[in-house]
Amino acid sequence: MKRKFLLGIDIGTTATKIILIDLDGNLQGEVSLPATLYSPQPNFAEEDALEWWQNVCQGIPICLEKAQVKAEEILAIGVSGMVPTIILVGKDGLPLRYSIQQNDARSHLEIDFFKSQVDEKLVFLKTGSAITQQSIGPKLLWLAKNEADAFAKTWQVMGSYDYINYRLTGQPTLEQNWALESGLFDLHRRDWDDELLALSRIRRDQLPPVHSPSDVIGSVSAEAARQTGLSEGTPVVAGSADHVASAFSVGLKENGDLLVKLGGAGDILYSLDRLEIDERLFLDYHVIPGLYLINGCMASSGSIIKWFRNQFAPELDYPDLDRQAEGIPPGSDGLILLPYFIGEKTPIFDPLARGMFFGLTLQHTRAHLYHTILEGISFGFLHHIQVMQERGWQIRRVRVANGGARSQLWRQITADVIGYPLEEVAHHPGSSLGAAFVAGMGVNAFSDWAEIEKYITISHVTQPEMSHHQQYQKLFGLYRQLYEDNKAHFRTLANLEGLFD
To answer: If you average pLDDT over residues 92-121, what whole number do you get?
Structure first.
């Protein structure tokens, strides 16, 4: 009897991850190769799409070898990735420049221009997306104004996983959540909005066809088979935005399910069984037809922790930092962090916001700074939860995932701040699992979306210490006020940045 496997690929901010699963709930192999984030100027966030493809070509043979799986035993391939990343692709199929990442905040002037040209409320009601630093339109306009040569040579605009799909199949496509999160897509007509395209200086023919996640968009080409070791003709599905695939793969499939992702960027996702929009949050299509995901995304989260370690504790690993900070009390002895190190997306949508340590004294140590970073990130999650509660969206359960979930200290602080138990998913590969499962649905390897439960194990539950939660509730008011009191100063600082060149 022929064995059957599914391949999942995730194009992440810090790594390209590749996994193989069987159809019985087992992970058979996984490989992770590093990706590089470039920030050549303040507010810039870029990556090399060719590095992602090289990782795919290098990682697939390694994964097959580890799992002792033959390429012909793979039923289908699914790819997930960051969204809405922009890749300008030339007629030769190669990127014309580095990608512009979803947390890139360079286009604040273009955002202001967009807002001056349209009725923001109408655009939001039409697209489900506010005009923010994540919006594709202002970034395209920035490219048209500042990199006219590359922009003029653009054949197709693609996202992160869409580009990998293109390299696998030779077929340019976009997945529906790239379209939705672009801010250029009419949610109700499921079509591009011509007025917004014109403002972006992009043509319809430069945007590939839009597909649902489990649509089979093509098969592995002969050239891709040669480069990756895959079998020519293996089906490839449209795939999914990484946060959507990750949410599904930890079991968010019912109304009221919430996921907190402790990763490089801080995602928080809420499963909803009806279409509702809020201008402070993003809206996504669920991978399950008919469901939606309310999506909050902080521009920086774990990336602040990485920055702190690299700059101030390079001799330590993360568990060492956790151990040093374990004895720090809630509130870090009067220290608060605003985690807006590269601006902020939801729920304040301020690309000019900046990070801030507030309350520093000579008594504060490196451990205090680390502890308050974890608290500041958790306050960001609580801000999102308060928005959801204002809308009357009740939380049924909270699950926690991504690399930071392995930190007992970070989990405990998060539970204490938000006031909910956190169910940790054990040994979970994240978005790549969701991508692999979606591929299986695309080729009828599974009969029901609920079969994802075969791949999920809850390792343990972190209970909140409610006395700590009450303390954090008081500090949260000051956290919010700090931003409100300083947001005008952030804009002034941005206007002065030329003085520091």
So the answer is: 95
In the chain the first and final C-alpha atoms are separated, in Å, by 66
Of 124, 241, 224, 223, the closest CA to residue 183 belongs to 124
Please count the other Cβ atoms lying within 10 Å of the Cβ belonging to residue 320: 12
Burial string for 354-384 (b: 16+ CB within 10 Å, else e) reads bbbbebeeeebeebbbbbbbbbbbbbbbbbb
CA pair distance 418, 451, nearest whole angstrom: 30
**pLDDT tens figures, 309-337:** 999 999 999 999 999 999 999 999 999 99
Per-residue pLDDT reduced to its tens digit, 256-291? 999 998 988 788 999 999 999 998 998 999 999 989
- Specify whether the CB–CB gap between 449 and 420 falls below 8 A: no
H/E element, 216: strand 216-219
Long-range CB pairs of 467-471, under 8 A, 24+ apart, other chains included: 468/330, 468/416, 469/416, 469/417, 469/418, 469/419, 471/330, 471/331
Cα distance between residue 125 and residue 182, in whole Å: 14
**3 state SS of 443:** coil
Model confidence at 36, pLDDT cuts 50, 70, 90, reads very high
Name the 3-class secondary structure at 14.
coil
Three-class SS of residue 360?
A: coil
Q: Are 282 and 129 in contact (CB under 8 A)?
A: yes
Give tens-digit pLDDT for 447-479.
Answer: 999 999 999 999 999 999 999 999 999 999 999
Looking at 82-213, which runs of residues are DSSP E strands? 87-89, 99-100, 156-158, 174-175, 185-186, 191-192, 210-211
The reported pLDDT for the residue numbered 202 is 97
Q: Which domains does the chain have, with CATH numbers?
A: 5-243 (3.30.420.40)
Is the bond preceding residue 84 a cis peptide, omega within 30 degrees? yes
